[in-house]
Write a structure and sequence with these properties.
Blueprint: H1 6-9, H2 22-26, E1 39-40, E2 66-68, E3 77-84, E4 93-102, E5 106-108, E6 116-117, E7 137-147, H3 159-166, E8 170-181
Antiparallel strand pairs: 1-2, 2-5, 3-4, 3-7, 4-6, 7-8
């Protein structure tokens, strides 16, 4: 595993600088934020903590909403990859693989089912809810790629399949980082016998 390129090192907080991130493999200084291409969320600002409603801490948790502006002309499709940059392994834990997004300005609403999804690190084709241990902060990196070719991948493809398909076809990339800190599970009904 090689180190992060300088252009990406300046775009990521120190705690999210994992050399195995998809953007480290597919992005470049030339295509990063090309033409003002940007990924944002109405639910959190860059670097702001994810709300527990997007994590394993809440029973009805869903994927966060995301928005992006227009990619460069000629973009055929957009691909979203969300990864845990705090992972100790060479490859970061994959939380979401999404493709089939139209190559134009758009959004994914909170909890919206994407057009096509691949397998996360647990082998499911859905948003893998962040679930760090109590007191541990993890950095979640949402990476958006504009591709000049439409993808032919079937739903359920793996991260490796997706990265191999995207190789050499990225015209623009953007990222958004959100930390999340695990908290103690609330004990329900933790009453002393004297209280009853």
């Amino acid at each position: 595993m090689t180190g992060l390129p300088d252009w990406l090192r300046t775009a990521l907080p120190a705690s999210a600088q994992h050399a195995g991130l998809a953007i480290a493999q597919l992005g470049s200084e030339r295509n990063f934020a090309r033409g003002g291409f940007k990924l944002t969320s109405p639910a959190f600002d860059p670097g702001e903590e994810l709300d527990p409603c997007f994590s394993a801490e809440e029973e009805d948790a869903v994927a966060p909403p995301l928005e992006w502006n227009a990619p460069p002309p000629g973009t055929q499709e957009l691909v979203l990859i969300a990864e845990d940059a705090t992972s100790a392994s060479d490859e970061p834990d994959c939380h979401w693989l999404v493709w089939g997004l139209k190559g134009q300005k758009g959004m994914l609403l909170e909890g919206e089912t994407p057009p096509r999804a691949g397998k996360n690190s647990k082998g499911n084709s859905e948003w893998l809810l962040p679930n760090p241990p109590e007191g541990e902060t993890r950095q979640y990196v949402f990476q958006l790629f504009a591709t000049e070719l439409p993808l032919t991948l079937m739903p359920g493809a793996t991260r490796a399949d997706l990265l191999a398909t995207l190789e050499g076809s990225i015209v623009a990339s953007a990222l958004l980082v959100a930390p999340f800190t695990g908290s103690a599970a609330e004990d329900e009904g933790d009453w002393a016998e004297d209280d009853i």
